[in-house]
Amino acid sequence: MAKNDKKKQNWRDKYRFSVINDTTFEEVWRVRLTQYNAFLLITFLVLFIIGATTSLIAFTNLREFIPGYPDVTIRRNILMSAIRLDSLDRELALRDKYFANLNAIISGKTPTDFYSVQDTTGNYKAISFNNIPEDSELRAKVENEERYNLTLGPSSPESVTSLAGLHFFPPVKGIISGRFDMRTKHFGTDIVTKPKSPVSAALDGTVIFTGWTMETGFVIELQHPNNIVSVYKHNANLLKETGDLVRAGEPISIVGDSGEMYTSGPHLHFEIWYKGSPLDPEKHILF
C-alpha cells in the first residue's frame, strides 16, 4: 500500500520550470506543472499540430507540394479530357445511329431504333374531352390565319410523282433576310421571326439527323418521300430525336441563334434538297 501511495503522490507532485537571468539571478519567467498537467498539455499540443497540418493540406494549395498529387492545371486538363471524351462518344453514337437510319430509309424499312410502347397503366376510356373557351379562340385564330394559305391541305406523298403536286408546310412565318444563292453556296433561305417560335416540319417524314455544329448550331434534318430532305439550322433547342416520325406542321425545334458563324440574330436557315441537289425554298413555300 505504501508503494502505491508513493506513486500517486509522485504523479501529483508539482514541478517548477523557471528562467533566471544569469547575471542578476533574477527569475524572469516560471511555470508550475504536475506530471498530469504536463501530459495533458503535450497531448493538446500534439493534437493541435496534427489538426492544423491536416486543415492546411485539405483546404489550401499546400497539398500540391505532396509528391504525386496533381496540381490545378493537371486536374483541369483531366476534367476537360473526360468531358471531351464523353462528347466524342455521344457524337459517334449519333453518327452510327444516323447511318443506320439512313440505311433503313433507303432500303424502305422502318428505322431500327424506332419503336412504340403502349402505356397500359392509364384508363383511357374514362377520359372526357370538353371544349374550353381558350381552345375555341385558338382554333378560330389558326383557321383564320391559314384560310388563304395555299401550302396547307391534305396530301398523299405516296401518290405524288413530282414536286409540282407537293404542298410544303411553312416551317416558320416571318421576314426573309437571306435568299437562296448558288453562287455564294447559300443553299437555303433565312427567315427572321420571333425568338423561341416553334419550327414546324415542312412535310411528313423521318428525322435522320439531330446534332450541333460550331458553324450552324443545333441542326435537324428530315427525310421525306420522293427523295426530299429538309434541313433546319440555328435552332435554340431540338424537340425530336433521330428516328422519330413527324407529320407536316408538327413542331420539331425552337427558333434560336445557335452557332458561332453564319448568324447575326434569331432566325431559321431552311434548306430543301431533292435527289442530292438544293432547291430554292421560296419557289415552293410562301413564308
Question: What report would you give on this structure?
Answer:
The chain has 4 helices and 12 strands, in the order αββαααββββββββββ. It is α+β, with helices and mostly antiparallel strands and 287 residues long. Among the domains are: 7-64, no CATH class; 156-287, Glucose Permease (Domain IIA) (Distorted Sandwich), CATH 2.70.70.10. Strands 3, 4, 5, 6, 7, 8, 9, 10, 11 and 12 form a 10-stranded antiparallel sheet that branches. The protein has a two-stranded antiparallel sheet with strand order 1-2. A hairpin with a 6-residue loop joins strand 1 (14-20) and strand 2. The longest helix is centred in the first third of the chain and has 35 residues, at 72-106. The radius of gyration is 38 Å and the shape is elongated. The protein starts with a helix and ends in an 8-residue tail after the last strand.
- Shape, principal axes of CA atoms: elongated
What string gives the helices and strands in order?
Answer: HEEHHHEEEEEEEEEE
Helical fraction: 25-40%
What structural category characterises the helix and strand content?
alpha+beta
Under CATH at level 1, the class of the domain at 156-287 stands as: Mainly Beta
Count of DSSP-assigned helices = 4
Q: CATH superfamily membership of the domain at 156-287, which one? A: Glucose Permease (Domain IIA)
* Largest beta-sheet characterization: 10 strands, antiparallel
Rg over alpha carbons = 38 Å
List low-confidence stretches.
150-161
User: Can you tell me the CATH topology of the domain at 156-287?
Assistant: Glucose Permease (Domain IIA)
Per CATH, the architecture of the domain at 156-287 is Distorted Sandwich
**Percent strand:** 15-25%
Q: How far is it from the N-terminal to the C-terminal residue, by CA?
A: 110 Å
Mean pLDDT: 80
